[in-house]
Amino acid sequence: MTTTKELHLVRKPEGMPRPDDFRLVDVTLAEPRDGEVLVENLYLSIDPATRPRLSRGHELDTPVMGFALGRVVASRYPDLKPGDIVRSAQGYRERFVSDGRYVGKVTPDPDLPLTVYLHMLGGVGFVAYGGLLVIGKMTAGETVFVSTAAGAVGSAAVQIARLKGCTVIGSTGSDRKAEWLRSLGVDHVLNYKKQAIGPAVREAAAKGIDVYFDNVGGEHLEAALACMNPLGRVAVCGMISTYNDAPVGVRNLSSIIYNRINIRGFVSSDFDELHPQFMQEMTQWLKSGAVQYQETVTNGMESAASALIGLLNGENTGKMLVKLSS
Ligand SMILES: NC(=O)c1ccc[n+]([C@@H]2O[C@H](COP(=O)([O-])OP(=O)(O)OC[C@H]3O[C@@H](n4cnc5c(N)ncnc54)[C@H](OP(=O)(O)O)[C@@H]3O)[C@@H](O)[C@H]2O)c1
Q1: Residues contacting residue 104 through CB under 8 Å, at least 6 positions apart
Q2: Ligand 1: does its nearest atom lie under 6 Å from the Cβ of 10?
Q3: 242-to-28, 95, 154, 216 alpha-carbon distances in Å
Q4: What tens digit of pLDDT does each residue of 136-190 get?
Q5: What pLDDT score was predicted for residue 220?
Q6: What is the pLDDT of residues 203-250, one digit of tens each?
Q7: What average pLDDT is seen over the chain?
Q8: From start to end of 128-196, where are the E strands?
Q9: Which atom in ligand 1 lies closest to the alpha carbon of residue 153?
Q10: pLDDT band at 51, cuts 50/70/90?
C-alpha cells in the first residue's frame, strides 16, 4: 500500500477557474496486480486543453485530466520495469497504478534533460512541427505568423519556422516574453496587450502572411485573415481565447473565399508518420543549441491548481510544468 496526493475537480469552472474548483485529496493505492504498473510522476504537464474539458465532460471528484512524465516504481506489466521513464495521460496524480493504458515508455537521450520529453520532444513540439510542415505546407521564404509565440507550442513553432528559412511574426502578452522571442530571432514581435492586434499584424506583415499558425482564435484569427496572401494556409492548433470566455466572432471569414485560403484544424495523429523524422531533427536542434526553450516550473501537487490558472493568465514563458519528484 502507498499513499499519494491527487488534485480533483470538485466544481465545474465558469470563466477563469478558481482555486476552490479543485481539491487536494489523499488516496491510498493498492500494490500493482498481474498486468499492472505503479508509476511515480516526476513532472505534470500543464496544458490549455485541460480547461475546456473542466466545464464539459469532466467527472467531478476525479483527478484533473492531464499528461505527466514519471518513473516506474514496481511492475507486473510485461513491457515495463522499475526505473523505466514513462509518459502518461492519467491526470494530476503523484502516483498511480495502471493496466498500461495511456502509459508509454520513453527512452530518454542521456545528453538531454528529461523535461524536454514534455515539450520540445513531446506532443507540443510535434504539433508545432507537423502543424507547420503538413497542415500549413510551409516552405522556405514564406511569412509565418504564430500566436502565443512564447508559449510551449508557439516557441517551438517560431523556431522551426526560422530554421526552415521563413520570416516569422510572433504575438505574445508581455514585454519579457517579447524580449525572449527577439533573442530567438523572431523577425517581428507583437505584444497584443499593448498594441491593437489588427493594425500590429498589418504593419508587421508588409508582404502578407502565407501561413498563420493559430493558437488563439478570435481577434488574432481575424487579424491574420485580414493579411493572408492568396492561397495562404491557416493551421488551427488551438483557440485559447475561447477556453474561459465566450468566443469573439471573426468578422472577415469571407476573405477565405476571396484569397482562396485553406483553413484546417488538426491534432498530432494527423501526421503520425512524420514522428521519427521529427524526433531526429528536433533532437539534433536541441543538442546543437539551434532550438532553445524555457520552462516555468512550480513545485508540488499543492501548486498544480495555481499552475493551471497561471497558464491561462499567461504567467508561463515556454512550457508550464509542476515538479513532483526527482
Ligand atoms: N491541436 C493540438 O493537438 C494541440 C496540442 C497542444 C496544444 N494545443 C493548443 O496550442 C495552444 C498553445 O498551447 P501551449 O500548451 O503551448 O500553451 P502555452 O502557449 O504555453 O500557454 C498558454 C498561453 O496562452 C496565452 N493566452 C492565454 N489567454 C489568452 C487569450 N485570451 N488570448 C491570447 N493569448 C492567451 C498566454 O500567453 P500570452 O502571454 O501570449 O497571453 C499563455 O501563456 C493552445 O491553444 C492549445 O490548446 C493544441
Answers
A1: 86, 87, 88
A2: no
A3: 37, 32, 17, 8
A4: 999 999 999 999 999 999 999 999 999 999 999 999 999 999 999 999 999 999 9
A5: 98
A6: 999 999 999 999 999 999 999 999 999 999 999 999 999 999 888 899
A7: 97
A8: 143-146, 167-172, 188-191
A9: 16
A10: very high
State whether the beta carbon of 174 lies less than 6 angstroms from ligand 1: yes
Centre of ligand 1 to C-alpha 46, Å, is: 11
Beta strand 167-172 with 228-236 is unpaired
Helix, strand, coil: what percent of the chain each, to 5?
30, 30, 40
Q: Does 124 contact ligand 1 (Cβ within 6 A)?
A: yes
**pLDDT, position 245:** 86
Quick one: which of 113, 114, 118, 116 has its CA closest to 68? 118
Least Cα distance to 137 among 155, 164, 171, 158 occurs for: 164
* Tally of CB atoms within 10 A around 315: 15
Does the beta carbon of 48 sit less than 6 angstroms from any atom of ligand 1? Answer: yes
Host H or E run for residue 322: strand 319-323
Looking at residue 247, its pLDDT comes to 86
Mutate to test the pocket of ligand 1, among 214, 240, 269, 298 (most ligand atoms within 8 A of CB): 240
Q: Are 226 and 201 in contact (CB under 8 A)?
A: yes
- Here the cell at position 265 is 484544424
8-state DSSP, 194: T
Dist. CA 102–CA 37, nearest whole Å: 12
8 A C-beta contact, residue 263 and residue 221: no
Q: Is 66 in the pocket of ligand 1 (CB under 6 A)?
A: no
Please check whether residue 20 is in contact with residue 11, taking contact to mean a CB–CB distance below 8 angstroms.
yes
| Ligand 1 within 6 A of CB of 170 | no
Q: Is the pTM of this model over 0.90?
A: yes
